[in-house]
Amino acid sequence: MGAVTRRLALLAVPLTLFVGGCTDSPADDPAPKSAAAAERPSPFRDCAALGTAPTSSPGAVSVSPGAGATAAAVGGQELPALTLACFTGGAPVALRDVAGPAVINVWASWCGPCRKELPAFQRLSERTTGRLQVVGVNTRDSRSGAQSIGEDFGVRFPILVDQGDALQRELRRNAFPLTLFVDAGGRIRHIDATGALDDASLTTLVRQHLGVAA
After folding, report:
1. Which position has the higher pLDDT, 57 or 203?
2. pLDDT confidence of residue 69
3. How far apart are CA 98 and CA 76, in angstroms?
4. N or C: which end of the chain has fewer CB within 10 A?
5. In angstroms, rounded to a whole number, what is the distance separating the alpha carbons of residues 44 and 105?
6. Where do the H-state alpha helices sit in 112-189?
7. 136 pairs with which residues across the strands?
8. Is 134:54 a contact under the CB 8 Å cutoff?
9. Which residues pair with 104 in a beta bridge?
């Protein structure tokens, strides 16, 4: 009888280990980790101030309404009548309510040129605080991908979300990245789709099309 008892006890050990492994498996399940990642604080600013116009500043310079060949082609064009969600939550934002002058950059985390230029847009935002609004529109992207880019690259300006490509479809543009230069009257003065913009090119474009020294 003692031998039979010992044999049953040995057989019970693998069963106990198997049950223990099933109990521990949720800790290794990626779903809880994804849920935790989604709850990380957003690196981006909220969108509450987008309807407030930047204050005037000595940094503003005079610019003619039709400056530049591309600006002449799109000058006077209103922003599309779209309402987009804010990445940080809160009330959706009507694009036409974004008070200019503003630079609106359409981007996605999987787009190489977008990743390359985003730090330059962040620096532009810092250099022109109170004189220019820099706004991102994240499209065709995952929330986790956009959040990671914001965290890794130190992007802090407000981000709107357009997963349906509504803005690009309204503008009839499918380029990535895409940047809109919007004047104080809410009119698009220039649309840039030349690729990754750097500090120098942004400084030139903002001065040329919006009359803001950056």
Report:
1. 203
2. 36
3. 16
4. N
5. 14
6. 112-127, 143-153, 166-171
7. 105, 159
8. no
9. 135, 180
Q: How many residues does the chain have?
A: 214
Tokens encoding 133:
């609004």
Report yes or no: 137 and 80 within 8 Å, Cβ to Cβ: no
Give pLDDT tens digits for 120-145: 999 999 999 999 999 999 999 999 99
Helix, strand, coil: what percent of the chain each, to 5?
A: 45, 15, 40
Q: Is residue 204 a contact partner of residue 103, using CB atoms and an 8 Å limit?
A: no
| pLDDT tens per residue, range 24-56 | 333 333 333 334 445 677 789 999 999 999 875
> Distance between CA atoms of 178 and 169, rounded to whole angstroms?
12
Nearest to 106 by CA among 208, 191, 5, 209: 191
| Cα distance between residue 31 and residue 146, in whole Å | 19
